[in-house]
Write a structure and sequence with these properties.
- By secondary structure, this protein is α/β, with parallel strands linked by helices.
- The chain has 3 domains: about 10-200, Rossmann fold (3-Layer(aba) Sandwich); about 240-360, Cytidine Deaminase, domain 2, CATH 3.40.140; about 390-520, AICAR transformylase, duplication domain (Cytidine Deaminase, domain 2, 3-Layer(aba) Sandwich).
- The chain contains 19 helices and 20 strands.
- It has helices at about 20-30, 40-45, 55-60, 75-80, 85-95, 110-115, 120-125, 130-140, 155-165, 170-200, 250-270, 295-305, 310, 325-330, 345-350, 405-420, 445-460, 480-490, 505-515, and strands at about 10-15, 35, 55, 105, 145-150, 215, 230, 275-285, 285-295, 315-320, 335-340, 360, 375, 380-385, 395, 425-430, 435-440, 470-475, 495, 515-520.
- Strand 10 (about 315-320), helix 14 and strand 11 (about 335-340) form a beta-alpha-beta unit.
- It starts with 9 loop residues before the first strand and ends in an 8-residue tail after the last strand.
């Protein structure tokens, strides 16, 4: 089939990443393509014995302002943008005595690399490319006639096309490269905006969603759904973590792993002085176990005992190194993913017998990674801040006093309950080993159902006496029926946000049942 795209006769090459460039430039030279270049790229071509035309001979102007001005010019833009099929454009370009540029090879100043390492603000600003995006966009706009290459990974396809067509590029190649070009500049601009927002403490955040930062997953929530994970170039976390062993992480694994990581870190931050070890166990985005203790082994056992059935096949996160004792205990059970800041050599050896078990090595969540929460709806996206931090104020609402010695358990319970799906009820207990969730009800449209489930789960887990436990609700109680269930279960301490028009009735019900109740003034819905 005849190729109607223009032959590549002149190419402009200006790249910061020079990997694999020699082969492409040599191919262009062998096809008698005139290569135009500038600065560091010109030096590279000279060192590789590839002739080129300096950019100033095309623009008629020297490079100046320490390289800030090189390619920006009427001559270069015109050589890229004029329409090869338009008679008037051809007349104008001939009158202007400007020759066409048929291929742009350009990747941009390494803003991302600079932003990731220690840098000064001036250094960051100097690595914002201006001329590169202009050339890339101009070439991509005129993609019926002009090729644009923005990544060394594309060089092979270009060389293949040039060999097959004796110097042309296939139309589909031009289209694919144009799309990648606009993706490239869109991601580049988004990274700059995101870094400036971080520097200037802007509330509304740019969200960097680009195919360049995306990796395909085996499937989504279900096997018939396609899925990808997009990694944030500036914030470390779960998304970009590569398992030390085991299968690739699935869509559901990643969601549960992120929840486990955040929950484990959040509850640990409250209790590090007394109980330095923290463990969370997540199943379907809700904790089925959460505990803090003096050792990881104690925290693991307490967390697992919160719901042994649901913990089977769960995702487990530790805030301390996983050692031999923990590994031997876990090796008796089926779990999907383990997350920890480190693993002892003995632990790695033990886990190696389970080929599908994923092990993630990630530093504990410390609250500093706060990307916006994004959810899609028809016609748009909902974006909000993460629900971070502990409740700062606890206000007694009943006549019955809330013991001071339960304050630490209360704060632990509020944070752990925050991770339960609404409507959420969590029951939390203390022992000499530490704090743990002993029962929970979640994900129900009716808070009474969640209340009953939480009590039943605590009973099922062997906690017959709940008089020293505390019950935490993620939102206010709309009716006193919840208090009646708590009273019958023997619960004597309740934490809830308050704010219902029925608060007086709820308080009265607690006073009559001799239950102490505290208002936090802050709800923690999690839909």
């Amino acid at each position: 089939m005849k190729n109607n795209t223009p032959k590549i006769r002149r190419a402009l090459i200006s790249v910061s990443d020079k990997s694999e460039l020699a082969e492409l430039a040599a191919k262009l030279h062998s096809l008698k393509v005139e290569i135009i270049s500038s600065g560091g790229t010109g030096k590279f071509l000279r060192e590789n014995n590839i002739p080129f035309t300096p950019i100033e001979k095309v623009t008629g102007n020297p490079e100046c302002f320490c390289g800030r001005m090189k390619t920006l010019s009427f001559q270069v833009a015109s050589a890229l943008l004029f329409r090869r099929e338009n008679a008037e454009d051809i007349k104008e370009i001939e009158k202007l005595n400007i020759k066409s540029i048929d291929l742009v090879v350009c990747n941009l100043y390494p803003f991302e690399d600079i932003a990731k390492r220690p840098h000064t603000w001036d250094e960051l600003i100097e690595n914002i490319d201006i001329g590169g995006p202009t050339m890339i966009r101009a070439a991509a706009k005129n993609n019926k006639s002009v090729g644009v290459v923005t990544d060394p990974s594309m060089y092979g396809a270009v060389i293949c096309d040039l060999d097959e067509t004796n110097g042309h590029l296939h139309p589909e190649t031009l289209q694919k490269m144009a799309l990648e070009a606009f993706r490239h500049t869109a991601r580049y601009d988004a990274m700059i905006a995101a870094k400036m927002e971080e520097e200037w403490n802007e509330e509304i955040k740019t969200i960097i969603l680009s195919p360049k930062g995306a990796s395909p997953l085996r499937y989504g929530e279900n096997p018939h759904q396609k899925a990808w994970v997009y990694t944030d170039p500036f914030n470390a976390g779960i998304a970009g973590t590569i398992p030390l062993q085991g299968k690739a992480l699935s869509y559901n694994n990643l969601l549960d792993a992120d929840t486990a990581w955040r929950c484990c870190g959040d509850v640990a931050a409250l209790c590090l002085n007394e109980f330095p070890a923290s463990v969370s166990i997540i199943k379907h985005l809700s904790p089925c176990g959460a505990a803090v203790a003096k050792t990881s082994m104690d925290a693991l056992q307490n967390a697992w005992d919160g719901d042994p059935v649901s913990s089977f096949g769960g995702v487990i996160c530790f805030n301390q190194e996983v050692d031999k004792e923990v590994a031997e205990w876990l090796n008796k059970y089926f779990v999907e993913v383990i997350i920890a800041p480190n693993y002892s050599p003995e632990a790695l050896s033990i886990f190696s017998s389970k080929k599908n078990l994923r092990l993630l090595k990630v530093n504990p969540y410390d609250g500093t990674c706060k990307p916006p929460v994004v959810r899609s709806i028809s016609g748009g996206w909902l974006v909000q801040q993460e629900d971070t931090g502990a409740d700062a104020e606890f206000k007694l609402a009943t006549k019955i006093e809330f013991p001071l010695e339960k304050n630490a358990l209360t704060k632990f319970g509020v944070i752990a309950c925050k991770y339960l799906k609404s409507n959420a009820i969590g029951i939390f207990g203390a022992s000499e080993k530490g704090f743990s969730m002993i029962g929970a009800g979640m994900g129900n449209p009716n808070r009474v159902v969640s209340m009953r489930q939480a009590v039943e789960k605590a009973r099922e887990n062997g906690h017959k006496d709940l008089s020293e436990a505390i019950l935490v609700s993620d939102a206010f109680f709309p009716f006193p029926d919840n208090i009646s269930i708590a009273d019958k279960a023997g619960i004597r301490y309740i934490i809830q946000p308050g704010g219902s028009i029925k608060d007086k009735d709820i308080i009265q019900a607690c006073d009559e049942a001799e239950i102490a109740m505290t208002f936090t003034g802050r709800r923690h819905f999690r839909h």
